[in-house]
UniProtKB/TrEMBL annotation:
Keyword Ribonucleoprotein: no
PROSITE patterns from the UniProt entry: HTH_LYSR
Keywords: DNA-binding, Transcription, Transcription regulation
Entry annotated with the keyword Transcription: yes
Gene Ontology terms: cellular component: protein-DNA complex
Superkingdom assignment: Bacteria
Protein name according to UniProt: LysR family transcriptional regulator
InterPro entries: LysR_HTH_N (IPR000847), WH-like_DNA-bd_sf (IPR036388), WH_DNA-bd_sf (IPR036390)
GO molecular function terms noted in the UniProt entry: DNA binding; DNA-binding transcription factor activity
Organism from which the protein derives: Gordonibacter urolithinfaciens
Amino acid sequence: MRIEVLEYFLEIAECRSFSQASNNLFISQQGLSKAMRALESELGVVLFRKKGRGIELTEEGSILKSHATEIVRQSDRARERFFKMQVGPSATSTTVNVFATSYVCNAIFNLLDGELGEHGLDNCSVSECELNEIIAAIECGETNFGLVNILQEDVAELDAFPYLTFTPFLSMRITVKAPKSLAAQFPDGEITPQQMSDLSLAYFNEPVLNKFVKRAFQGPDRKAPTIILHSTNIERINSLVRNSKAVTFSDTFTQSVRKDTEGIISLDLNPPHWFFVGVLENSGLQKSSDQYGYVQRLRALIRYKHRHYLGKYAL
């Protein structure tokens, strides 16, 4: 009986829905059901029964819940203790200068602002730059590292800079956010670039995403969708999607932190496209203790707070 399976069980009991629990845990509903059948077989009991449109715990399920809650609580305490050992003191007087791409500024320093502040990782000054600017800053010694996002197919291009090392710590799949009114058109939850050609598109102005969009709709057999907004105004983009006027691009990590609002569905792009977030550094330089320590603490925070996401979207 693995602790992970008990976490699954408790999430189902809390949600009273396999579907909602699977979304929260970043595991397929089929995989979640299989794990629960195996747990029931191991214990020789039935843990859930149907109730209306949802489910509820059986008597045996309620008994397991009390034990599982304590086991998972102890596991969480151990994880938290080791995490705090890695991040060190909750605050420090040293301010670290971080060079980061615009996506990282939004996905890490904006979406995770509360988590960073809670664990003393907001003690930094962030310089938003494009990838080539970060490479130039590392090259001239202005900084030892940068936090960047890069498309999976472009990682090999960094080989042109033999003194640089790229270490990813998050992988993201590009997705499409669409109004719920389109759900019937995509019953399998997937959409292709060809299917997007008849839709209106509003998307965020960000270098890596811009490069992806340009490639996705290239070729004689590809017709680009009608672009009605290309901007950094994320509120306006989301408004257009909610009001059934456009679709937009997102990614699995952003969606895991900022849950989709009512009336919006998420579609997997087929074929899948991925990008990474990671540390780009000059491996030949002696590491600054402050900068290196900050990166290590940031990675520890993401491993601790987003372990379910990392479990599904492993590097």
